[in-house]
Amino acid sequence: MSTTGHEAAANAPNAGEYILHHLGNLNSSGHPQNTMVDFSIINYDTLFFSVVLGAVGLLLMWLAARRATSGVPGRVQAALEILVEMVDYQAKAIVPNENSRRFVAPLGLTAFIWVFLMNAMDFLPVDLLPLLWQKLSGNPHAYLRVVPTADLNGAFGLSFGVLLVSLFYSVKTKGIGGWMHELISAPFGNHPLLYIPNAAMQIVEFTAKTVSHGMRLFGNMYAGELLFLLIALMGMASPSMEPVGGSLLWLGHLVTGTLWALFHIFIVVLQAFIFMMLTLVYIGLAHSNH
Prior knowledge:
By secondary structure, the chain is mainly α. It has one domain (about 5-285). It has helices at about 5-10, 15-20, 45-65, 75-95, 100-120, 130-135, 150-185, 195-235, 245-285. The radius of gyration is 23 Å and the shape is globular.
């Protein structure tokens, strides 16, 4: 290896630094934030990709609806019709109020497509957009994360939105008085001595559902993102090894990357489906009485 090569190797980040850099967000603090929830900091990359992918999802659905025909459907129309029927069937089984379903079913469909698109950002090469951003920004150390659902802030933002919708329908169906009465009378009973324990249990229930809803999505996508980074390190390390060992490592990188990407397709779809189903379940529970 030449002197220049030795200097480049010495200045190159090690495996831990590489992973930590890729797990850092471009945010308002100017410092990387990996998995911490900090409401005083705005993760610009999570916000940007969430909004852009949400707009892309709406555009795709609008284009499919605009080009829909009453005759033999094309592949895109057929796939979207299957998806719409699936979500509508689940909404009818979970949400008892027909008027509510007129909004909740499209909401479930939107949640599925939006989360799917955000999850699918994991299929992009891990260095593609971060390196492009570093060149555009002129900062070789700039941070950028492209999977919004692998950011705990983004996942909690989605689950908190579902909580707000659930509370809205709970108040709408029961009235503000009925909802407040349920808040202090369930699950232990309507007795003045039980008002505080009941309210505490209800708050714990709301918190647990919201946290588990976001953590389930975040945990799976964060693990997938981390595995893609580890697989990428195999390919990056291969040039520094002996020809035979380096070739085997590069081949391992190629095989494991392909296998994990194929398996990750299932994870991406499954997590979008689970998030959509839990959204319908939580809103459906808001219509029921304890």
